[in-house]
Design brief:
This protein is mainly α. It has helices spanning 11-29, 37-48, 54-60, 65-77, 99-120, 125-143, 148-154; strands at 81-85, 93-97. The chain is globular.
């Protein structure tokens, strides 16, 4: 008899479940702000690098540049972000956080910190440190390698477009 794959012990499945838990906790705690984790990350990236363009800022938060436009549009609709045409290249849009956006980030910061604590709550203090260290190492190790997505967009390797 064929046995099914044991997803309960598969790293990919566990990481996906952890992501689902993290997003759900973020939504629960920040429900009054009507913001997603990606929107919050992008807003903070613009605070850190005002005047950056969409592609650069999307890469800073490890988000797909092609779909970041809709995230930026939602932040712009809330009055938290503004786009400005680059003087050297009018097609390129530079992003800036508005005063209302800055105020929103300040108001959300404590709640976002609480989300991080809630996510790690099932672990002891030493396990939290170890978990974050291992997770950071896992991410860094994979970011140093060519990802299948990078190969796809470069048009080389086994994922080459035909």
């Amino acid at each position: 008899m064929t046995r099914s794959f044991d997803f309960a012990q598969a790293p990919g499945h566990l990481i996906r479940r952890a992501q689902q838990i993290a997003v759900a906790e973020f939504a629960r705690v920040l429900v009054d702000f009507d913001i997603t984790p990606v929107q919050f990350a992008l807003l903070n990236a613009v605070i850190d690098a005002p005047g950056g363009d969409q592609v650069t800022l999307a890469k800073a938060v490890a988000f797909d540049p092609a779909t970041s436009g809709s995230v930026i549009a939602r932040l712009e609709a809330k009055g938290w972000l503004r786009r400005q045409a680059d003087a050297q290249d009018r097609r390129r849009k530079l992003l800036f956080v508005t005063p209302a956006g800055t105020q929103a980030v300040v108001q959300m910061s404590a709640a976002v910190s609480q989300v991080q604590k809630n996510i790690l709550a099932p672990l002891s203090a030493s396990e939290q440190v170890q978990f974050l260290d291992l997770l950071a190492r896992l991410v860094a190790g994979h970011e140093q390698q060519d990802s299948p997505r990078d190969l796809l967009y470069r048009g080389s390797g086994p994922f080459r477009r035909i």
